[in-house]
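Open question from group meeting: does this chain pack into something compact, or does most of it stay loose? Before anyone orders reagents, we agreed to write out a predicted structure and look at it together. Recording both the input and the output here so the notebook holds the full record.
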Amino acid sequence: MSAQFVPRPRLTVRLGVTGTLAVAAAERDRLRREIDRLLVAVEVAMRQLVESGVADGVYDLSRPPRLRVISPLAPGADRLVAEVALARGAELDVVTPFALASYEKDFPESVDDFRTLLARAEGRVFELDGERHDEIDDLLRDDPSGTAARAERDRAYEAAGHMVVRNADLVVALWDRRPGGRGGTGDIVRYAAAYGPPVVRISSDRDEEPEWILDLADFHRAEPWTSSPAGRSFEGHVVGHLTAILTPPDTAATRHRTSGAVERAITCWSTATDPLQTFLTAAPAPRRTRWRLYDGVIRVFAGPAPRRDGEPAEPPHSSDPAWLHWKAVHEPVDELAIAFADRYRTASVAAFFSAALALMAAGVGLFHHDVRVTAVELVALATIFAAFFVNLRGGWHARFVDYRLLAELTRNQRALSLVGSSLPIEATGRVTGDAEAAPGRESWVGWYLRAMMRSAPLPTGSIEGTLPEVGRVVCEGLIEAQANYHERNEKRIGAAAEAMERASGILFFVTFAAAAAEFLLGWGAGHGEHGAHGVDLLGPALGVVTVVTSSLSAALFGILSFAELKVHAEQSARMAKYMSATARRLRDVLERIEHGRDGRRIGSLHSQELAAELHDVAAEMMQDIAGWSRLSRVKSLGLG
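Structure tokens returned:
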């Protein structure tokens, strides 16, 4: 049961398709052979991964490995690749630049072929909200030449091509290397070369070895570069690339680094030596009272937590497989992040208060020799060690940071999935630490996120009819909800920080006053101003007060500094301001969408405008969570 709580990714490769609209009859057999070579290489990479055993316990192997072909199904190359791939058992996902009825007007002579292949997609069709020139009547009247109308059409094809690339692990392009215009094959290949993934270019008009295009340098190369200096074939590049992205990280070899001998000894007994396996086999972790000590302290100083908002709004197509996929991923990760935050913070607070109690007992023992006082001191010290031991053995701190990082990434991806978009791989790599290339504990977070992206279906149906509701869900369920959360968090955490500072200061001054009184009492006794009896009576009492208040003051100051309450309050204040401004901008976008639906249809692809806003929000949230992650990782509970 626990193994099913966190979903495992299905072993999947996504192949994006772009290419020429006209495939010469004389070239079709050659192109089929080259496409088949590419598909065989993809199958080899997946088969080798399964046979090596590294996929066991990580991927959901109850379902067979899967090749997904993502294509607009335009005439020519798109359909040829789809036919060959379907014959080899691949799945087909279709992204169209316009609604289907409009799209079919671009190829009236081959509508039947299009519909035949479309049926093989089994409903996995996502229709963007582009506009064809003959439907923008007002625009044509203003521009009889049709230049602006053609630009709108090209922009729609560009949007569809970019969506194919963003949702692919590898792109195949049947292309003659001629530049073409906006939204054409050359434009889409250049986009892939700039932002990834790699492209296999199969010449559409010459019998030559397929070309491996990894970056813009390859794209701009005057002559096709078909192999590495070592003579590596394009199949070798394909297998190498897919093996690298599909192979799970060796997280067991990159366990959390420890500095002390005690820490290293405890880590040997750790129950979380392989972070990825520990995560995938995690059981549900509902919040429990015994792990709410940190919340209790905050409640004492800032009052009860404000009531949580209700569940975020569901999209109008809440049964959409893409939405359900990311909902199934995000919810267990978020639950685990909360659970291990509770555990780690409770252990930390318990350690601070136990340290204060140990100091009190030691101080009282100076004035009152009693075995019970010594026992209290020993219990307090044992509690400190126990808090340290269970945190390190269970990996609570690392799991809290990792799971929270993953939860925030999946929260953003869940919103982007509504418009068929994805978090940029390069940006997520910077957040998770993968961009630095050095192996680290965060590497499994980025790998799992990308594996679930490969497993995730695209949205289905036409986005045009549901776009205003999708925008409302994103605005209310993500942006405004985050603005409200950060506003509440800033007020509550800020209030707790101020109250703890005030209490620590009061305790310090009480300590100072007691110490001063004790000094004056002793000084007076030494000069005969007070009797020895008064010193014997008041001296120990003042000493106890000094020890107790100084210990409590130090504990509060330690919790305040360790938890970085002021820093978190400032971060929340900044994010609340940003999210509120973003919500206002998004409301303006939604108003324009509604106006466009009811009035002139000039300016299509509102979904891309919404996607651009979401990418900006995701970038800001990822920057925020990256800063939090770096700060939190250096705050691990230790004995030193």
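Observations to bring back to the group:
Residues 437-442, 598-603 have pLDDT under 50 and may be disordered.
DSSP finds 21 helices and eight strands in the chain.
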